[in-house]
Specification:
The protein is α/β, with parallel strands linked by helices and 367 residues long. It has 2 domains: 134 residues, no CATH class; 221 residues, Rossmann fold (3-Layer(aba) Sandwich), CATH 3.40.50.2000. The protein has 15 helices and 11 strands. It has a 7-stranded mixed beta sheet, with helices on both faces. Strand 10, helix 11 and strand 11 form a beta-alpha-beta unit. Helix 7 runs parallel beside helix 8 and helix 7 packs across helix 12. The chain starts with a strand and ends with a helix. The relative contact order is 0.15.
């Protein structure tokens, strides 16, 4: 065996990456732990793996290369080392950040973007054509506010088939008709994240309740996985927003999940902790307009058009979108998702796992 994969939280995007590497890279062996109690996994999984992984001369005990899925992830780790070490009572290691930094590289999370054209309403198909000339890194960090010049056309799309944990009223599916009918169709907002406190569902639902108080028309789909402890806000929000709910709960079928994303207009993140954000990029791939905090990893991935700095800004943006949803549906999304595709990143991952760190370093400086 030449490649050892360790995953202490084998669920969600973590499992997605592990499965991708096992499928795409030869001669791998993996050891995993279930996706529960994230903080305990981070603190103690090394002890478990120490006892579980058999001794092998093929593994080195100290990393030659340390890879992070974003610059934000790398810099937040390196800058926090000295502060963390100060909590030790004695025998503190010195200058660890200076020792580790030369080994560190950014290698984005690779996503296998599925073919979703068959699920897209007509206006998203037209927008997709309009995006073909913007897929280059030069446009990544500019403020794009362009709106497509073509008329918005929509058509009937199927509701996701198969079972979901909960489903709300099915009155807001994408419908056929002319531009006037499209203006009347409510804005469809999707929140596709883990049902945990670090994704700040409190802020998301508080924002929606403000929209409701202002008697604005909108629909919402709340997707994402649930774990042992689900914040109480989900049950409370479900009751308060019942007339606005399209879909509610984790969808075990990836196809059903993608169908909902393709029907939605806007995808929102309210995360307080995020090093990458696979769900947001998957939603953008399905034609959703992204709204993300102007913090964490998001400015690294999304142009400023799609960022908000305060809860008030988030609410104002959604309020404007509720009043003019047709403008959202005409907007050509300026995010180069191909940068994060497995097709783009496969070669670098293969080089990494072959221990060809010279190649990784070269590509890091030219990417």
């Amino acid at each position: 065996m030449s490649v050892l994969l360790l995953e202490a939280f084998n669920g969600g995007s973590h499992k997605q990456l592990l499965d991708l590497l096992q499928e795409g890279v030869e001669d791998c062996v993996s050891f995993t732990l279930p996706a529960k109690k994230w903080h305990w996994r981070a603190r103690t999984s090394a002890l478990y793996f120490m006892q579980t992984v058999p001794a092998s001369s093929s593994y080195s005990l100290v990393a030659d290369v340390v890879v992070f899925n974003s610059s934000f992830n790398m810099e937040s780790f390196l800058s926090s080392i000295s502060t963390f070490m100060k909590t030790m009572p004695d025998h503190r290691p010195k200058d660890l950040d200076r020792l580790i930094r030369p080994k560190c590289h950014v290698l984005h999370f690779p996503i296998c973007f599925p073919e979703v054209t068959r699920f897209l309403p007509a206006h998203k198909c037209l927008r997709h054509l309009g995006r073909q000339d913007i897929h280059n890194p030069a446009v990544q960090h500019t403020d794009h506010t362009s709106v497509a010049s073509f008329s918005d056309i929509t058509k009937d799309t199927e509701s996701p088939e198969g079972k979901v944990h909960e489903a709300g009223p099915q009155t807001g599916s994408v419908v056929s008709g002319d531009d006037d009918r499209d203006k009347l169709r409510p804005l469809h907002i999707v929140w596709p994240h883990r049902w945990e406190h670090d994704k700040d569902p409190q802020l998301f639902f508080q924002t929606l309740l403000k929209l409701k108080e202002r008697q604005l028309s909108f629909e919402v789909s709340v997707l994402g996985e649930t774990f042992t402890d689900v914040p109480d806000i989900f049950a409370e929000a479900k009751e308060q927003l019942v007339d606005h709910i399209q879909y509610w709960g984790f969808m075990p079928s990836k196809e059903d999940y993608l169908k909902v994303l393709c029907q939605a207009d806007v995808v929102v993140s309210t995360a307080k902790h995020e090093f990458f954000g696979v769900a947001m990029l998957e939603a953008v791939h399905c034609g959703c307009y992204p709204l993300c905090p102007n913090a964490l990893v998001y400015p690294e991935i999304f142009p400023v058009t799609y960022l908000y700095s305060t809860p008030e800004q988030l609410c104002k943006k959604l309020q404007n979108f509720c009043k003019r949803p047709h403008l959202v549906r005409q907007h050509v999304i300026q995010v180069n998702i191909s940068t994060f595709s497995w097709e783009t990143l496969e070669r670098r991952f293969r080089s990494l796992l072959k221990a060809d760190d010279d190649m990784i370093s070269t590509e890091q400086h030219t990417s």
